[in-house]
Design a protein that fits this description.
CATH architecture of the domain at 94-252 in chain B: Orthogonal Bundle
Order of helices and strands of chain B: HHHHHHHHHHHH
Oligomer: heterodimer
CATH topology of the largest domain in chain A: Dipeptide-binding Protein, domain 3
Shape of chain A: globular
CATH class of the largest domain in chain A: Alpha Beta
Number of domains of chain A: 3
Number of helices of chain A: 18
Largest sheet of chain A: 6 strands, mixed
Distance between the termini of chain A: 60 Å
Structural class of chain B: mainly alpha
CATH class of the domain at 94-252 in chain B: Mainly Alpha
Distance between the termini of chain B: 7 Å
Number of strands of chain B: 0
Number of strands of chain A: 19
Radius of gyration of chain A: 26 Å
Structural class of chain A: alpha+beta
CATH superfamily of the largest domain in chain A: Dipeptide-binding Protein, Domain 3
Number of helices of chain B: 12
Largest interface: A-B, 79 and 71 residues
Chain lengths: 588, 306
Amino acid sequence: MTFACSKRIWLVMLLSVLVVACGKSTDDDQAPLFSDGDEKAANSLVLRRGNGEEPQTLDPHRATGVPSANILRDLFEGLTTETADGNIIPGAAHRWNISADGLTYTFYLDPLGRWSNGDPVTAGDFVFSLRRSVTPETASVYAGMLAPIKNATEILAGKKMPSALGVSALEEFVLQIHLTSPTAYFLGMLNHSATYPLHQASLRAAKGSFSHPGQLVSNGAYQLTKWAVRSFIELKKNPYYRDADSVGIETVRFYVLPDQSTEIKLFRSGALDWTNDVPIGQYQWLLKNMADELVLSPWMGSYFLGFNLSREPFRGNKALRLALALAVDRDLLTEKVTRFGEQPAYALVPPGSPNYTPQEPEWASWTQAERDIAALEYYAQAGYSEEKPLVVEFRYNTSENHKKVALAVTSMWRQKLGVQSHLINEEWKVFLQNRRHKVLTQVFRAGWISDYNDPVSFLDLLTNISGDNDFAYNNEDFNSLLLQASQERIPLRRRRLLQAAEAIMIADQPLVPLYTYVTKRMVSQRLGGWQHNVMDHHYSRYMYFKNEESEPELEPGNSPAKLAPETTAETTAETNEKTSQVAISEDG
Amino acid sequence: MLNYSLRRLAWAFPTLLLLITVAFFMIRVAPGGPFDSEKNLPPEIEQNLNAKYHLDEPLVQQYFRYLGQILRFDFGPSFQYRDWTVNQLIAKGFPVSLSIGALAMLLSFTLGIGIGTIAALRQNSVLDHGLMGYAMLGISIPNFVIAPLLILVISVYWGWLPSGGWEWNWRNMVLPVITLAMPVTAYIARLMRGSMIEVLHSDFIRTARAKGLSEMTVIRRHAMKPALLPVISFMGPALAGLITGSVVIEKIFAIPGIGSFFVQGAMNRDYTLVMGVVIFYGALIILFNFLVDLIYAWLNPRVHYK
């Protein structure tokens, strides 16, 4: 053997040893993934869902973001839950009473409710968990949602002990919650992960890592069995779940697939049953070749442009804001630019909120030609003309879609009014900071996907006390109407107050609604039981495989038995409000 | 030699400290923070979060706290993946990146040297032009073009291999390894061809041929060793780059390696995760460069380390 050759072999061996060594260091949770071929048959009982990014955490009280929320909805069950199409129904609590002033809720827990280790789910578990959720040390991002509960805000600020929270266990299965103001959407809120119960004993035993497989005890339809970081999270049916007989699918896997093109290729090769999204650029191809599996649903989210009212040129210049709002042809924008069936929008609150009519301005019913004429008039009224055009900066965060929308809108402004726009593209966190500081921004893109299905989640953005009021909008009538609505518990009156508030705001035009979001995904044709849902909440427990030999006994979704909560007459109006929750963000 | 090795290793510490310091303050200069989202947090909640992660302390105090942690090999909890520590995340991701990277290196090293040598021996022939044409293509076509093409043809149309995802199985490794190895193979082939041609024209090769040795023996015994030297120098940083994962490959094939931690961590302002992978990567580069220098000395009799 020559010297050179022995060196080469040495190197080769070194590399081989590295490979072998790392092969041995595999974790047991790095189990087979996307197996194909022989294992296809075995996979037929596994629901494989694309779920976007890696979930930030499976601690329900700390969770933020859609990927976590999707998994937590399968793992845990709040006092209320939802039907497949998003109506609020009893969950861990099988009935409740609401006091006449709307400030005291008494929940009667389902005595069949069990943790995944067989322990009963008690009122004490909920007291413990709600207190944990607002404890400062938990550092929960969504704890602010619990503000309607008595003393929650003070506890969060460290001014009171967690035991002061207005939550108490009257009996083993009877829970009472005291609120500071009647909160119309409170029942829907109880479906949010920030209110989910946790199993005290296992949480204390596991210390920091209780949310890992083998340690996490949950009370929902599924339990956590595997977590391969940045690959997948696997859940198996919880045999102790109170309604376990109606759960058809034994195993669910949530795959971490942030890249939409990778996700669609996996779907096409049969390795996924459900995608989180579809690539924007492939819409036409999908429509032509896979139309049966492409599912588009309206979503409780708005895409709009914001004006910074604290500085020139928009401060005190309503005519200019109106001119820009009128000159955008939303039909053209949604048909030719975004092209996924988005609905042109003139109001901030999207359609689909129960018991509410979004407030559009009068000109929403005009033709675009009429709007263009009016836009020119307002433009002139604002002091601008062809000789003295508006020069404006348009900021958006990096994304193909935002760029296309920005280009389309600014070219409409240029063609119709002669506005000279400078497009400024910013990285997400830089963009957020600039928007918040309100020093650099003039026109900026914005979007909002609601936390709960109630118009307030959109309208609250624009109050003077909102931390999200990047528009510097401040209208006293609007603020006071929203304040009144927060204290009003008669649904019809509350609705009138909210509608009046939106109408005032839209007339002021601190923002330009462009369109209502849609969710877009591929769903395998063998999958049944899911329904369109404006909140995009899809519980695996309602789904089933159509070709399975053993069909689930219950038709998933709205089984009539599940729709009749045993409530007092006065609560009926609230239960009809299909208020529900999710921790989400606009598309970054 | 031992003296040299110890000195090199001792230098690694100030180098790493400098790296840590620069990285620590640079990431903090970036606008925004780990908990910023489009939904503004109420001030009391923001305060609770900052207190939990010690972000409410003065920056210098945080820096020394962090140095103290690193001495205990504790990179701290990730801000983004809150159920895991940075140590756990690297421990889970690195074996994946290491296997794909090491296999890609092995493949490109073997193929690259083979192709380069053959091209050099048949200099200016059709075969040489063909191989170097391939190498040029390999270098110039980016992997985000090659990868989707391979997936489309091999996985989607023919169904031979999985189109993505990860398991400890050769089937899931083939496409990523090929994609990752392609440009490196091409680069090594070009390096190897150049240095081999140069070596083949040197006096000691002429002497070897004059002795009447067969061409095969001349190449194996006399030409290969010096011709490998530039390739070995290239290998250090290349290997560190390959085994710490590639963002593009990980994204396209949905591989849970540590490459995307760099980009995702920076975008999310996940300070601890970014610091963890920067230090890890830095330490690997220092280590590989050191190893390459040792191998270089071993292969090249003209180099002496003092």
